[in-house]
Design goal:
single chain, ElyC/SanA/YdcF family protein, DUF218, Cell_Envelope_Assoc, globular, Rossmann fold, alpha/beta
Length: about 210
């Protein structure tokens, strides 16, 4: 019995280490700070919690990075991807309103209300919105997974680190969740290539926004 338990533990450790290595290798050479980011037609901003219709610290940091990328000429359009019916509210409306308040032309912004997680965001970006090359913005601990998932989906993606502006305890908690739960789940998703939870017919809204600029 002890040998069976030890074997299962060893198998779990191997699977966990393998998932972390897989994601790290997939993202290697494709993560940047805002100032060093390469150019791409579109920047993808991953949703996060909002409060009273406004972005909280994590999401604000991502949006501020996207604003800088557009202002620096690194991207022409912004795809804001999240849950329009999230527990904290409409992430898409909050992100769009914030970007417009920061001076981003609303015609540059496309909202995906069914980007329910990072995997779904990447899958829908290519299959629904026709994104083939993009920058994807999130906090540093999350960037490798986001890049790995988007590149696995077929997008030529580079990740951009954004600020957090949040409490250290919040950052540590989210980073721990990323390493313990999210990375192994991402590896499983990439291995099996599941469909996004919500699929939609292809549309040209992102490419139309890019063509405007």
């Amino acid at each position: 019995m002890k040998r069976w338990i030890a074997g299962l533990v060893a198998l779990g450790v191997v699977a966990y280490v393998g998932s972390v290595v897989w994601i790290s290798v997939a993202a290697k050479g494709h993560t940047f700070d805002v100032a060093d980011a390469p150019e791409a037609p579109v920047v993808i901003v991953l949703g996060a919690q909002i409060k009273d219709g406004k972005p909280m610290a994590f999401l604000k940091g991502r949006l501020d990075a996207a604003v800088q990328l557009v202002e620096d000429g690194k991207a022409s359009a912004v795809l804001v991807s999240g849950d329009a019916n999230g527990a904290s509210g409409d992430e898409i409306a909050a992100m769009t309103n914030y970007l417009v308040e920061q001076g981003i032309d609303e015609r540059r912004i496309v909202g995906d209300p069914y980007g329910l997680d990072t995997y779904d965001t990447c899958s829908r970006a290519i299959h629904t919105y026709g994104v083939s090359k993009a920058l994807i913005v999130t906090q540093g601990y999350h960037v490798p997974r986001a890049v790995a998932l988007c590149r696995d989906a077929g997008i030529d993606a580079d990740g951009v680190n954004s600020d957090c502006g949040c409490a250290t305890t919040t950052l540590v908690k989210n980073a721990a969740r990323e390493w313990i739960l999210a990375k192994p789940k991402a590896a499983i998703d990439m291995l099996y290539g599941r469909d996004a939870k919500v699929t939609s017919p292809p549309e040209d809204s992102v490419n139309s926004a890019v063509r405007l600029y």
